């Protein structure tokens, strides 16, 4: 069961990043809805893995950072539609994404 959750979780992350870039640069509503669906898939599979691993602090921190990353992605899409400046948000997004990936693959920890 854990392997199913892990594969679904990692696959949803990859698709989520691609959908975010498509949504950000093309402003299509359907990709935004798909992006939000993959947020849910990613959160559900992440919580499922946390339950099976008995909530290790390392992965709880990764989960918190991932939820913040989701918030940053949503803010970036909304700010892009309003025409607000985005340079600082891109820096935050890249840093958070790097931290989440480093924590996920046990490079940090």
Describe this structure in words.
With 109 residues, the chain is mainly α. The protein is built from 4 helices and no strands. It has helices at residues 2-26, 29-53, 57-82, 87-104. Helix 1 (2-26) runs antiparallel to helix 2 (29-53), helix 2 runs antiparallel to helix 3 (57-82) and helix 3 packs antiparallel against helix 4.
What is the chain-wise order of helices and strands?
HHHH
Distance between the termini: 25 Å
Question: What fraction of residues sit in β-strands?
Answer: under 5%
Task: Work out the helicity level.
Answer: over 70%
Sheet of most strands: none
Secondary structural class: mainly alpha
Q: Compute the number of strand runs.
A: 0
Reconstruct the topology from this structure:
Layout: H1 2-26, H2 29-53, H3 57-82, H4 87-104
Helix pairs in contact: 1-2, 2-3, 3-4
Summarize the structure.
The chain is 86% helix and 0% strand.
Q: Keywords for this structure?
A:
mainly alpha, 4 helices, 109 residues, 86% helix, globular
């Amino acid at each position: 069961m854990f392997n199913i959750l892990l594969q679904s979780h990692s696959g949803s992350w990859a698709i989520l990043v691609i959908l975010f870039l498509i949504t950000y640069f093309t402003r299509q509503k359907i990709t935004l809805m798909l992006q939000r669906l993959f947020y849910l898939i990613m959160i559900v599979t992440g919580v499922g893995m946390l339950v099976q691993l008995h909530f290790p602090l390392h992965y709880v921190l990764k989960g918190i950072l991932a939820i913040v990353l989701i918030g940053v992605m949503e803010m970036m899409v909304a700010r892009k539609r309003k025409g607000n400046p985005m340079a600082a948000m891109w820096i935050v997004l890249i840093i958070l994404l790097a931290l989440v990936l480093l924590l996920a693959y046990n490079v940090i920890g």
